[in-house]
Each structure stands twice: as C-alpha cells, then as structure tokens.
C-alpha cells in the first residue's frame, strides 16, 4: 500500500464517531494520528461494552470503526500540565482535528488562536452538529438528528403509509459519510499549504452533510414549490425497469435499466416471457409508461415465479444494471467485495478477530492495511518520550494525574 499521508501528524481531540472517523481514514492512509483522551474516562464510546450495548468479550466494533490505526495518548486537558503537554504535541503536528463545541474549546484553550500561537502552520479542523455560526452553534447532536432528520432525508424516504419517519439505515450512517468528507477536505488543505504556505481552518457539519446528500431533492422541492419531493412507489414506478421486484423465496432484485427500449427484450426473455417483447402495450418506452401498471404486474409475476438462485442463473448474461438486495452480513462475502479487498480482517487488543470496511478508495490498486484501535492511553509513554520527556518526568505527570 502507498501511505500517502506518511509523515503527517494529526492531533485529535474528539469523541464518538463523527470527526474521529476522519482521523481513522487518515491513519489508514499512513498518517500518525494521536487520539487525545481523558486519563479516567477516555472516549465515551469505549463504554458501550460496560453499558451493556455490546456484550462482554465481543469486539467493540463501534469504537474500532472510527479509531483504527491511531495511537491513544491520555491527557487531562483541564489541568495546566495536561494542556502544556498537548501544546507540545501541537507544535509537532500538521493537523488538529476536533468536534468539541465552541464554548468547550474556549474553556480548554483549544481555539484557533491558541493553537496557532504554538504552531502557525497547523491546519485546524472542526466538525460540528449544525455549524460554527448561528444561535445553535453550541448545541450538540448526532447523525440521527442533524444529518438524517433535519436534512429532510428521514421525511423523504418514509412511505406515506408509515405512521413515523424511518430511522437511518444503520448506526453511524451519517457519521461515516461525514468523516470521509472531512478526510478529503484535510487532504485538500494539506495540498494548499504545500503550494502556498497558508494553513487553513476547515469546517464541516452533520447538517451540511445531510443537506448535501439530499441536494437534488432539496433543489427540486424548492424549484417546484413542493414541501415534499415525489416519492417512488414500487407499485407505480414511472419506469418499471427502474424498480425492485420480489422473488419466489422472498428476496428482492433491484433494476436500474433507464434505457428501457434497449433492455426490455433481454429482460423479459431472461424471465421466460418472450411474448412480452411484442405485446402492443409494451413495444416502446412510451407505451410501457402508459401501461406501467400492467408492466409492473407482468414483472411482479415473472420474478415471483422464480427463486433468487433461478433469477441469478437466468440473468447471468442480461445486459443492464441489476443486483440482489443484500443483507449487511452478505456484503462480507460478496465476490466483488472480496476480490477488491474492500473489507479487512483485524484482531482487537483482546485477541478477538473481526472485520472492518476499509476506506472506499485505493491507491495504486492496493487495499489498505488496517490495524486495530488503541487501548485507552496505550501510547502515552511512547509519544511523550518522542517529544523529549524522560520516564521520570512522565511518572511525575502520572502521579499528579495529568496523564495516564
């Protein structure tokens, strides 16, 4: 693997997933990411095991996901000694990464001016719930609220028949997307600094990411003065070849065959209904659109008469975009996922084997080499020695509680 971030040091003062996952991606790309944690509590996401949300002895996948490959340094930033040690680390760093709120940063002496006084070339990166400005800048939030609900995503994906908006597809859904975006922005800021010498301040938020992900829908709703953008309903799809169909064994096939005139003959032939090619109702895109309820009924019946295995065999040579709607666990063994190394095998600090999805880019066609998340304060001594402290000095800091 090409460690494109080799030689870059990131100091991260952040918790949970949004923002820390950006640090994990940079670590995966070769950066030295120092995760700063409180000596006693650490990142609260470590507590998911003791809280009962993750069984004892199981891998804490929710901590591993955003903290892979980092080094943990436990400092009490509320103490003068802990803050001084952090500033010594800041002096050696290229990037400072945080999701602390404005009031907390000010109280802890972690604002832009505080850090630039020590290192005027550091790239200062903030991720927040709803942005750094406005009346709500000091409010916290999670991706379920700021990314999913506030952006209109929850409302727009929920069927009219549902009594409540749907929740996100899974945990850390918006966090992971947002973290990837922050990692890309940091890469751009590093390039800018290399070319111009200017160190930038970088901002993103879960609300910004949610709005971006819903960009086409938001623009369309505004352009046509609609509170809600029209939703696609399986039983009334405008183009029946852009739809989802159920097999005889209760699995689903997703079709996206936009050029329906091109794909219709091959599709219905593979489904064993070649007579549909010349049916007067179905001879063109226009007639299929006019009779789309009939088309959907014909396709529903055809798919419903075959199992998933039979569909896969029949569709082996079908021209056009289609796929099985997979369960999350099936993705692990998806042949294309395996062939391209999209999921890595790891072992946590307790010798438990597990898998993690790699960052969704590769350099020189080589999968990333992932390593586990650190134990709480695992690298405190080594990192402090790297910046010139003796072991006697480190022990003194441990005694007064400034470090773990």
TrEMBL record:
- List the molecular function annotations (GO) for this entry: transferase activity
Q: Which Pfam families match?
A: CoA_transf_3 (PF02515)
Q: Which UniProt keywords apply?
A: Transferase
Q: Which InterPro entries match?
A: CoA-transferase_III, CoA-Trfase_fam_III, CoA-Trfase_III_dom3_sf, CoA-Trfase_III_dom_1_sf
Cleavable signal peptide:
none
The entry's protein name is Crotonobetainyl-CoA:carnitine CoA-transferase CaiB-like acyl-CoA transferase
